[in-house]
Amino acid sequence: QVQFVESGGGLVQPGGSLRLSCTASGTNFSQSIMSWYRQAPGKRRELVAHIGVSDSATYADSVKGRFTASRDNAKKTLYLQMSSLQPEDTAVYYCNAFTSAGWVRRGDYWGQGTQVTVSS
To answer: Quick check: 116 and 19 in contact, CB under 8 A?
Structure first.
């Protein structure tokens, strides 16, 4: 069974920074496309960033220039460095993996993720 453990969220003031981590167990991490998603209350889950096997990353326009995704295949860990955080970044953040068997996380409920709250 594949298990994700997100961490690093918390309360931060506008303009602040956070570094999120996602450790994935039970999957061929190095051969998986890894992605960050977020979901704010009352809104649909949205893609934040994804990073491919080649380590090239792409970002949603809303976070481009502020967020940086990276991966450490040896540690099976995905990272999201977030800077210049804004209140609209407040959401629960999740990671996901696309493997040879497809997306690991499916459907509506993805667990508890890690909460990021940007507020003064």
So the answer is: no
Closest to 116 measured CA to CA, from 23, 7, 35: 7
Amino acid occupying residue 56: S
Q: Please say whether the dihedral angle defined by the alpha carbons of residues 97, 40, 8 and 108, taken in this order, is positive or negative.
A: negative
Q: Is 83 within 8 Å of 67 (Cβ atoms)?
A: yes
Distances (CA, A) of 60 to 4, 36, 94, 114: 22, 10, 15, 19
For 25-74, what is each residue's pLDDT tens digit? 998 999 999 999 999 999 999 999 999 999 899 999 999 999 999 999 99
How many residues does the structure list for the chain? Answer: 120
The two three-digit tokens of residue 79, written as one number: 């990272």
